Amino acid sequence: MSQWICIKPKSQENEENFISISLPHPRTGLPARYIIQDGDLFEAQRVDCSSQNSWFIKDIIQKDGSMILFTRIDPLFLMIPFLENSRRKNLESQGFFLTLEDILDNIDYPSTTRLLTINNMLTYMEWICDGKDINLDSKVYRLNDDKMMKWLKGKVTNLLSKFDQHKSLRKLAEQLDNETIHDQHRQELRTKFILEVIMEYLPNYWIEQLKKEYKFDELGKWSNQEIFYMTDNTSKYSENKKIEVEVKQPVKKRKLTLGQTTLAKANKTGMKKLTSFFSKIPKD
Question: In total, how many domains does the chain have?
């Protein structure tokens, strides 16, 4: 029997009051593990160590030294594939209206109906769907593309406004050094990073729509040989003062910070990306 060390949010009610379910990941469609606790949805992610490690638990040795974290996830991300597939949109029609029970009816994942127990789920549905009452006790829904894009853009705006507050993003913010990157370019890099995070939880169709909306491929691309910005004595960029640089004029190299210089000289052979330490928890 497999067992792991898990870190989960503290329950407001009974500590054992959580349900473990298997649902398709919204981007890959592969089985992934989630839990519902106190009406909130959490995603299970395994953090693997780069070398062999073990846990000592009282007088027992847990050979698997990895750790599983339960992190909160917006349930609408998991709903998007079901809503997209069930409406059957085509060139002649925006698709069908269906009840949530019919939308979530999936023989391969019977636990999908558990999403209906999420707190405020019906309110969330109004954010990305059109709804119609068919009687006093039942309502039908259909994904609305305009509402969907507005919701996604709201996600981007919200994360950008709190970029420096998130611990996971703070280190990245420190790399966007004030002395070497223009404010506009820094904002582009932050936007691109946020988009990459959000697109990890979207089906391919909506990934492409989001890329078009933000001109994703152009974000973070600029040339120091085209323009430079005049600065004052406080090293802040002056507004609306762009000077063209002649081709023959040497371009002044940007000054690297101490951390950037050290990283550039380091031997990165065999180093893993930070994201390689995180993985989705597969279905049992």
Answer: 3
Q: Which residues contact 55 (CB under 8 A, 6 or more apart)?
A: 5, 61, 62, 64, 65
**pLDDT tens per residue across span 241-270:** 333 333 344 444 555 554 455 555 555 555
* Residues 115/19, Cβ–Cβ less than 8 Å: no
What is the residue range of 244's domain?
Answer: 147-253
Domain identity same for 67 and 81: no
Residue 273 in 3-state DSSP?
coil
Q: Is residue 97 part of a domain?
A: yes
What are the tens digits of pLDDT across the range 173-195? 665 555 556 777 778 888 888 99
3 state SS for 20-31: EEEEECCCCCCE
Spatial separation of the C-alpha atoms in residues 241 and 243, rounded to whole Å: 7
Whole-angstrom distance, CA of residue 89 vs CA of residue 265: 53
CA-only gyration radius of the chain, Å: 24
Closest Cα partner for 43 from 256, 279, 274, 250? 279
Query: What are the start-end ranges of the E strands in 113-182?
Result: 129-135, 138-143
Query: 38: left (phi > 0), else alpha (psi -120 to 50), else beta?
Result: left
Label the pairing between strands 138-143 and 129-135.
Answer: antiparallel
Residues 44-101 have pLDDT tens digits of 887 776 666 776 666 776 666 677 778 889 999 999 999 999 988 888 888 899 999 9
